[in-house]
Design a protein that fits this description.
By secondary structure, this protein is mostly helical. Helix content is about 45%, strand content about 5%. A four-stranded parallel β-sheet has the order 2-1-3-4, with helices on both faces. It is globular, with a radius of gyration of 20 Å. The model has no long low-confidence stretch (mean pLDDT about 95). Belongs to the galactose-3-O-sulfotransferase family.
Length: about 350
Amino acid sequence: PKTDIVFLKVHKSASSTVMNILFRFGETHNLTFAFPVGGGNQLFYPRHFLARFVQGFSPRRPQRFNILCHHMRFLQPEVQKVVSHSAVYFSILRNPVQLMESSFVYYKGASAFSRAHSLEEFLSHPYLYYNPANRDSHYARNLMTFDFGFNPNGEVSAKRVQLMLEAIEASFDLLLISEYFDESMVLLKEMLCWDLDSVVSFPLNSRDSSTKSPLPDTIVEKIKNWNRLDWEIYTHFNRTFWERIDRDIGRERMQQEVKALRERKAELARTCLQGTGSVAPKDIKDSSLRPLQHGNAKILGYNLKQGLDKETERMCRRLVTPELQYSSALYKKQFPQRQP
C-alpha cells in the first residue's frame, strides 16, 4: 500500500469525505500528517502553500511527512519540501455549476455574496458585488482554479487553458470526480493498492436538501460563463477520468467494484448508525460528532448505535467523526506536548 500522499482538498467537492478516508488510513498505519502550525485545518489558506506553514518543518533538517491533506492553495515546489519524492498526488473536482450554488450558500458571509439576495441576483451583475482585490473573493469565482494555484481572474484563451491543464496533469497522478464518487474511490483504491475497507466512507460535511434548489438553465449558463476556467478544468478531467477507467479497469469490472463498495457501505451503515443515515445538526445526540455549521448551510451528521462493542464502536466513530474534530485528535496524538 502507498503511504506517501498529497491530496489537494478542493473546496465544496466531497473533499471532507476523502479527508476522513486519509485520516483513518493514516491513523491505522501510524503515519505522520503535515499539520498546519499550531493545529487547525487550513495551511494558511488562501495564501499559496509554503513548507514553513507545516508544524515541525525545519529547512535545516527537512522532515518528510506521509500525508499532506489539509486545505491549501497548491504550490508544488513548496509541497515537495515536506513530502517524499515518490508521493502520490491526487485531487477531486466537482461540476462548477453545483460548486457555485454550494459556495453561495456555504460562504454567504464572503464579501462577494453577503449583499446579493440570491445567486441569480449575483450573476446578473457580478461586478456590483465581486471585487477581485478582496481577500475572500476567490470563493465567488473559479474556486477550483484558485485552489490549484492559478489566477481565477485570468483571461480564458485557448493557450492559457491548455497550459493550465498541462500543469495540473504534470503535477497530479489522479483527479477524482465528486459526481462519480464511488467510481473515484475504486480508482483511488487501485492506484494506492489499498483494500476496500480503506476507501469505504459515509458522506461528511454534506448539507441538508432543504437549502438546495434546482437551477434554471439560464442560471446554469451564467455560472459556466462566470466560472469558465473551472468549467474547462472540469470538462477536461471528467473526460480523462472515463478514459482512464476504460484503459485501466473496464466498465464491467468497474460496475462490480462499485457494487461491492456500496454493499460494504450499506453493511457498515447497518452496523454503525442509528436510523438510516445522516440527521440534522439538532438531532445529533453526541456533541463531539457535530459538524461545524457554516453560512446558511445546514450540515448533516450521524448518530452511532448504542451498545456496540469497543472495537466496533471505535471503527464506527472514526467513520462519522467530522473533519475538525478528527484533525484535532490526530494533531494531539502526533504532537502530544503541544495543545492546539
